[in-house]
Amino acid sequence: MRFASPFRRRRGAIPLVAAALAALAAVAGPAAGPAGAQTLDKVAFGTNWVAQAEHGGFYQALADGTYRRYGLDVTIVPGGPNANNRILLPVGKLDFYMSANTLQAFDAVEQNVPTVVVAAIFQKDPQVLIAHPGAVERFADLKRLNLFVSKEGMASYFQWLKAEYGFSDAQVKPYTFNAQPFLADKRSAMQGYVTSEPFAIERQSRIRPVVFLLADQGFSSYSTLIETRRDLVENKPGLVERFVDASIVGWYSYLYGDPSAGNALIRKQNPEMSEDLLAYARERMKTYGIVDSGDAERLGIGAMTDARMAAFFAAMVKAGVTKPTVDFRRSYTLQFVNKRVGIDLRPKN
Length: 349
Description:
The protein has helices at residues 6-11, 18-28, 56-63, 66-69, 85-88, 102-110, 151-155, 157-165, 180-184, 197-205, 230-235, 237-256, 260-269, 275-287, 296-299, 306-318; strands spanning 41-46, 72-77, 96-101, 115-122, 127-131, 146-149, 172-174, 188-193, 210-213, 223-229. The protein is an alpha/beta fold. It folds into two domains: 6-124 and 221-345, D-Maltodextrin-Binding Protein, domain 2 (3-Layer(aba) Sandwich); 127-217, D-Maltodextrin-Binding Protein, domain 2 (3-Layer(aba) Sandwich), CATH 3.40.190.10. The chain is globular.
């Protein structure tokens, strides 16, 4: 049994070295602007993997006409194993990009890549550690187990686990996005996303695993961030604002309304995505407050705050993941969020 893990799909940060960008820019050329006769602004939005429920609000906004109502003709460009949409953003082939986590924004600042985060759709990173039932009772008990962690995980959240909880490199085994080693070792845990791996494990092994969301243990990275270029923020702030606002409305609609339009478009782009998994992932996002929790409850979906950015940066510096010299404040702007856009679409309990 092999899982196409969302951790690999969404978190794999590829360094954006200047040479690579220059080479790509040379062959790509400048992006074409909308024709003068058009009434809608053309926008290209790149995701970081194939279509799935974790992208649901964006597909909902496209499928139900929300983007068009905001004056936008949006094309969603899916990512995938042979795509690197992140590089296409700074060279002008994409207007917006769905970034996996806050660490990628810090990395962009360190490498002087001219991109900036303009909204954080996920208040909680969906990263989890998954254990066998009966093996652990508390999160700290995971320190007694073998842990299947990917190379990307070792370079990011696992360093935080070591700094904050005393986890050890000695307990780690390589995670190759195959659940069989975990299933065979009852004294082990594996990485995954709360929206997918537990579903696959339950379906194929008939066990209900114990799931620990790292965000609920203090790992405070934002996830599913909307990034754009600094020149768009400076020269076309109205375009940026309309894309952010329409995406937020799409996410409220996907979570709390009828998601069928968005799901149909997701399945059209990715026929391997089942209706059952789409429903499960959407329900998990709601249950765990992945999108609509914390600051988003009062400021609206997409919320970000200076305090949380500063706290996460300090935690990553402490863990040795990020250099203390990085000017993290340049990685984001609050110009387009915290305005309670679409908040009236949330059900009133």
